[in-house]
Amino acid sequence: MKKKLLFILFVTIVRVYFGQNNTSTPYSLFGLGVENKTATGGLTGLGNTGIAQSNPFEINIYNPASLGNILQNSFLYEFGLNGTYSTLKTNSKSESSTNGNISHIAIAFPISKGWGLSAGLLPYTKTGYNIDVENAIEGSTETYITRITGEGGLNKFYISTGFKVFKNLSLGADVSFLFGSINQESQLFTDSFVSIIDENHYGGVKLKTGFQYKLPTFKGIETTLGGTLELPASLSGNQTRNSYKESFSGTSISIEEEAENDLENFELPFAYGVGITSVINKKFITSLDYSKLIWSDTNQQQNNESYVDQSIYAFGLEYVPTKNKFNYSSNIKYRFGFNYNTGFLKISNQQIDSYFVSIGVGLPMKKFSNDNFNISYSYGKEGTLENKLIQENFHKLTLNLNFVGKWFNKRKID
Asked: What is the pTM of this model?
């Protein structure tokens, strides 16, 4: 009954969040927008680590090999929300905004012993900007303003599977279907008003593989190694354009109506990641991840900007006082994380990097329960004030409901 009430509460909140924009940053103007930094379970409080994490009671979207450790007769399902308060700053002014969005919906279940399957839906990229650009009128000292606004992003639906090859080795594979649209409107204010509205639709498939290997326990320390490979992918695109011109007298003239155009494919890079997770005396869990995305091989150019290779460094630490089923507080998980991202975009010869620190707790739904309410708070920065660029400071709150149910469990009749 409690789970049903929590689910109803979650759906109500989601309806509110779906009515809001999901980001507000000028850097989402480039490419497909900014990547959505989504993590499942308690990994949001652990700096978004997870390549070597293998918790049978939580879904891990970072490495499909973790599904080889799912328990028989279990059924995992979880929902997540996040809200962000951000401040955009230049050298002369700043402005703040609040945004919220659903972070993910995911399920996982065993197919047989040592073999699991997972599926989920989550935002992949997000776009939200409102920029005024001053342009010079050729042959004149006068200027005109172009106001560019954008919203939307891509979604990701994934299906992944993982299985045990040997007792300590698991392998996995993940197929992701990317789809969505980015809508942009350009408004030109000259001797007349011109509006150009573009609906840019993209779609494609991305493949990922992974492994996890558990080392022999040494002095009470259980260590797991993990790795992932993501193959390059090409997203095809098409555009629908509507434009019109309106004079100051109020006369409106259609320039283009439902004009269809093909867009250049957007190339996603080859990527790999490695991680190590250690469980120390069943109280401390440390995670260290490194990921590399080879954007330079995609040979893409964005006006005067360029795509560069991206590195992500992440660290997480979790502490559980003791597993005592008769004491609620002893089962609360305390988490800390750090994440540094070099970014993949170079503007004005400046690479747009970011970082965040996070803290979080995992609250059991009841004493010694595997159902958890995960809460995490993150503070971070993206961008820089150098070279007349923009810096974003953000505070992010993530709420995650993680349930463990029974899968095809037969009731006993006395």
From this structure: 0.89
